[in-house]
Design a protein that fits this description.
Elements lengths: L9 H9 L8 H11 L4 E5 L2 E4 H17 L7 E4 L5 H13 L2 E4 L6 H11 L3 E5 L1 E2 L2 E2 H12 L7 E5 L9 E2 H4 L19 E6 L9 E5 H14 L7 E4 L6 H5 L2 H7 L3 E4 L5 H11 L3 E4 L4 H10 L9 E4 L6 H11 L2 E8 L2 E5 L6 H6 L3 E2 L5 E5 L12 E6 L11 H7 L6 E9 L5 E6 L3 E4 L2 E4 H8 L5 E11 L3 E10 L6 H10 L10 E4 L13 H8 L3
Parallel strand pairs: 1-13, 3-4, 3-5, 5-8, 8-9, 12-13, 12-14, 14-15, 15-16, 26-27
Antiparallel strand pairs: 1-2, 6-7, 10-11, 16-17, 17-18, 19-20, 20-21, 21-22, 23-24, 25-26
Helix pairs in contact: 2-3, 2-4, 3-4, 5-6, 8-10, 12-13
Pfam families: AMP-binding (PF00501), AMP-binding_C (PF13193)
Organism: Streptomyces halstedii
InterPro entries: AMP-bd_C, AMP-bd_C_sf, AMP-binding_CS, AMP-dep_synth/lig_dom, ATP-dep_AMP-bd_enzyme
């Protein structure tokens, strides 16, 4: 359960250090350096609350001291399940200052997921809100503790807000003692090449796996993205997606912005009305979205009278951005669109700010590091030529070499020479840019014909009545699998014949047309904002 994660071979580690990718600095020490360099610069904004870099450094000391008083120390794992509010960042750096390990949980996780994270990580504490989105997280934690029993690892629950009737829950404010700035005990000897945090795998089915990230590799992840995005002290990043999401936190996100000396503004929800008001007020220059948000932002920007002139770059990632939306988003917001394709396991691809428009519209970027190694292979593992669809394999200075506590799974997830099998189907262009075609498991096998769901979904969105679409496979006696398209429509949903004709006009083969069209008011999303195809598949099954 607490086994040491698989690490990079020594030869690769030495190469990454020599290249300057790994700098041998812990996150606790990085914050100290940032605060010393520009103490009065604003680091974090949450509503009317503001923290300078000196404030953030002092809070890290206070929270580390409070956690140490609970008996939490270096190497202990702590699940952080907080919504978008400054306390997520404060707690994260407090844990880093202590040398403890934050485990990023999503606000939407419930008893099954949180209990799983506690067990697999061996977490000694959880940090939660009192209530969020009309859900009582205190009751959730009471259930998790009862389920694990007296022999479970969880010893403490810290509540941001009112602990309610749970006398043994610790109020967050009780952690914040009177420790003076700069008087903390550093990082308790934390190793920069050691475990810094645990992220969650972003799959849409099953319980998440834990992804170990070190101080060295995760800092490089954020720094490499920040350099490509040209972040500096003038950058104002708006965190719209969940803070625990790797995309939001380090691509370049919160960490990349802070490491560049910029300002992080936290949005409590992803609605365009909330975000646009913050863009106006704080002069935001960069933000990140997932594709399901794009139509809403585009519509609000076109209909409203918001002042968005400060916004320079809008990143879109988490899933493939349909080309027609890539064309309309930038003009609607008056900003440069940047496509992002990556994974919490490591490899991040970005379109560049000076890429031709065609590459920005039609590709999901290229690797951020010169030491990212990418293979595109067929079903037998043999490399395929550029332009041919295959599975993406990767290894590099910030891509894991093994999951946390999952050695049996690692034998399937990695090649013998350390390449991570992403499960993503891509085409690589001669420029190195990748076009995401779908997932190996997101293919529908209809009578032997393979249908890439993402290809059909993108073309469904070109129908004038369809505003969102997801294609799933359902067991079928005749075909093995049949395809069901779930669509969100502005008016009446088109029938299967109309859709088939439309797709045929778009150049798709006849077998790719959905066998069934189901109109839904909205597409269900996973905790990280991806379309929940497992939930849709359950909706497709006969009662």
């Amino acid at each position: 359960m607490t086994e040491t994660p698989t690490t990079w071979p020594e030869a690769a580690s030495a190469r990454y250090r020599a290249a300057g990718h790994w700098q041998g600095v812990t996150f606790g020490a990085r914050l100290r350096h940032l605060a010393a360099g520009h103490p009065e610069r604003v680091a974090v904004v949450d509503g009317d609350r503001r923290w300078t870099y000196a404030d953030l450094d002092a809070e890290a000391d206070r929270i580390a001291a409070g956690l140490r008083g609970l008996g939490i120390g270096r190497g202990d794992r702590v699940v952080v399940q907080l919504p978008n509010r400054a306390e997520f960042v404060l707690v994260w750096f407090g844990l880093q200052r202590l040398g403890a390990v934050p485990v990023h949980a999503m606000p939407g996780h419930r008893r099954r997921e949180i209990g799983h994270l506690v067990r697999v990580a061996g977490a000694v504490a959880c940090v939660v809100p009192d209530r969020h989105a009309r859900f009582d997280h205190r009751r959730l934690m009471s259930d998790v503790r009862a389920e694990q029993g007296p022999d479970g690892p969880l010893r403490h629950v810290v509540v941001v807000g009112d602990p309610g009737p749970y006398d043994d829950f610790v109020p967050f404010e009780a952690l914040r003692g009177d420790t003076a700035p700069g008087t903390g005990t550093g990082t308790d000897g934390a190793d920069p090449s050691g475990l810094a945090l645990l992220l969650l795998s972003g799959g849409t089915t099953g319980l998440p796996k834990l992804i170990p990230r070190t101080h060295d590799d995760y800092a490089y992840n954020a720094r490499a993205c920040a350099e490509i995005c040209a972040l500096d002290a003038r950058t104002v990043y708006l965190a719209v997606l969940p803070l625990g999401f790797n995309f939001t936190f380090a691509c370049p996100g919160v960490l990349g912005t802070l490491m560049a000396g910029g300002t992080v503004v936290i949005a409590p929800d992803p609605s365009p009305q909330t975000a646009f008001a913050l863009i106006e007020r704080e002069r935001v220059t960069l933000t990140s979205l997932t594709p399901p948000l794009v139509p809403h932002w585009t519509a609000e920007a076109s209909a409203g009278s918001w002042d968005l002139k400060s916004l320079a770059v809008v990143q879109v990632g988490g899933a493939r951005l349909p080309e027609d939306q890539a064309c309309t988003l930038g003009p609607a917001l008056g900003a440069r669109v940047q496509q992002v394709f990556g994974m919490a396991e490591g490899l991040i691809n970005l379109t560049r700010l000076d890429d031709p428009e065609e590459l920005v519209r039609t590709t999901q970027g290229r690797p951020v590091s010169t030491d990212d190694e990418v293979l595109v292979v067929d079903a037998e593992g043999a490399p395929v030529p550029d332009g041919t669809v295959g599975e993406l394999l990767t290894r590099g200075p910030y891509t894991l070499r093994g999951y946390y506590g999952a050695r049996a799974h690692d034998r399937l997830a990695f090649t013998p020479d350390g390449y991570y099998r992403s499960g993503d189907l891509v085409r690589r262009l001669p420029t190195g840019h990748l076009v995401v075609v779908g997932r190996i498991k997101d293919q529908i096998n209809r009578g032997g014909e393979k249908i890439a769901a993402v290809e059909v979904e993108e073309q469904l969105l070109t129908h004038p009545a369809v505003t969102a679409a997801a294609l799933v496979g359902v067991e079928d006696e005749r075909w093995g699998e049949r395809s069901v398209a779930f669509v969100v429509c502005a008016g009446e949903a088109p029938g299967t014949r109309e859709v088939a004709a439309h797709l045929r006009e778009r150049g798709l083969a006849a077998y790719k047309a959905p066998d069934e069209i189901v109109r839904v008011p909205g597409l269900p999303l996973t905790a990280v904002g991806k379309v929940d195809k497992a939930a849709l598949a359950r909706m497709s099954r006969p009662a």
